[in-house]
Amino acid sequence: MTKMKKIQNFINGKFTNPISNNWIDNYCPFNGEVYSLTPNSSKEDVESAYQSAEFAFTLWSQTTLEERSRILIKISELLEKNLERFAEAESRDNGKPISLAKAIDIPRAASNFRFFGNAITQFASESHESVGQNAINYTLRQPIGVVGCISPWNLPLYLFTWKIAPAIAAGNCVVAKPSEVTPMTAYLLSEILNEAGLPKGVLNIVHGLGTTTGQAIVVHPNIKAISFTGGTTTGAHIAKIAAPMFKKLSLELGGKNPNIIFADCDYENMLETTVRSSFANQGQICLCGSRIFVEASIYDKFKTDFVKKVKQLKVGHPAESSTDIGALVSRLHLDKVLSYIEIGKKEGGKILCGGNQVIIYNYENGYYLEPTVIEVNSDECRINQEEIFGPVVTIMPFKNEDDVLHMANKVKYGLSATIWTNNLKRTMRLSNQLHAGIVWVNTWMLRDLRTPFGGVKASGVGREGGFEALRFFTEAKNVCVKY
Ligand code: NAD
């Protein structure tokens, strides 16, 4: 029997096994088989990671911005150099098509390091002259100390590095935990960190379950900020612990994003993008437009054309270049998504296409699901209100702008929204009034890393991206000097 690959923690620049010697099975979504073991790190491992981060902070917080920038850009280059290896690992761990990991996930992880490596050299603080009082105030932007970064499984390396890169660029040291469902690329990243010359202890990666390792990071009294991306329930739990400890908190949580289509849009572009915004990454992107509202006058045409295109998407093995939809991330998640399809049927939803698990020859135990379109007759049904986070979208018609605005906003979430129209005034009216942190008009997921990223209502607290992230990972200290 071949020995199972063991993922290790990365603490103080070294690979280590968990102190408790406790391991979790890591499944491959292609075929449902366990293919590696992940540490289930205890609070002792987290303490060890904290100690090494705390020790490294003295030096790292005083390292020049140019030097920090140089190292971050080096990490970015090494990720690019290892694109194939990382993309294969991401695909095998998560189930996404390799083509997607190659085109989006890994290049974006590299961009995160390059972007914040550059951004930190442009990050400046303010000064205020107190006119008439012979005084000047200047504001220091100091790193916080040791911070915790916790990320989900849907865009594993992409979202992990989206937190880590600004944290270390700003001079903090980090205890980071990737999702236990997709730990592999965070593990591979550890190898690159030493090669890039990141001083030991600046970034420590501990693997494990949320309830053990994640919890240990959140409750640690000296980890002063938590940057978290994941589910809304987990976010609420973390906030309950962190708020009375006065930790800085950034919470990027769930979504149920509306995709609003007016009759006057550029139809072909809208149609093609809507297929993508519904099913990219198996619908497992927090920004996917899972509630599609279509103006009544083009509803029937849209329904026919959209369903036709969705039926053409090929569900298949993630390594095959012809695959559009890979495997869902886990058995548990597949079951959750299937259960929502059942709920949809019971609520009177009409399955226009999909709805079934897909069995692929030789990979019968993989987690494959048909892309599913459900026509609903009320925006208030559960499948229109609750986050499914899989290849399932709802569609329904709307009468007018007020009508759709009301429905779009009538959910507990508020992450993103997409509007398709060529009416400028309408675009501006709706963008102003939609409950969302991000609004796309006539596009979807066009990302400029300088822009604020985050949600309102149950989609989170705080903004990531650009200088917002560097502000989050620093404390402002005002110094008032009288002359
Ligand atoms: P999750 O909340 O189950 O887990 C996210 C991370 O939190 C994992 O690393 C997990 O181990 C950890 N965790 C779980 N319990 C914890 C605890 N008690 N203390 C500390 N850490 C804990 O979410 P998931 O299932 O991995 O990800 C899917 C969710 O993430 C969806 O709701 C999706 O919308 C959301 N998401 C949001 C964004 C965004 O930017 N807003 C981006 C991607 C995903």
From TrEMBL:
The keyword Ligase does not apply. InterPro entries: Ald_DH/histidinol_DH, Ald_DH_C, Ald_DH_CS_CYS, Ald_DH_CS_GLU, Ald_DH_N, Aldehyde_DH_dom. Keywords: NAD, Oxidoreductase. It comes from the Bacteria. The keyword NAD applies. The active site is at residue 252. Pfam families: Aldedh. Residues 20-479 form the Aldehyde dehydrogenase domain. Belongs to the aldehyde dehydrogenase family. This is 5-carboxymethyl-2-hydroxymuconate semialdehyde dehydrogenase. It comes from Hyunsoonleella aestuarii.
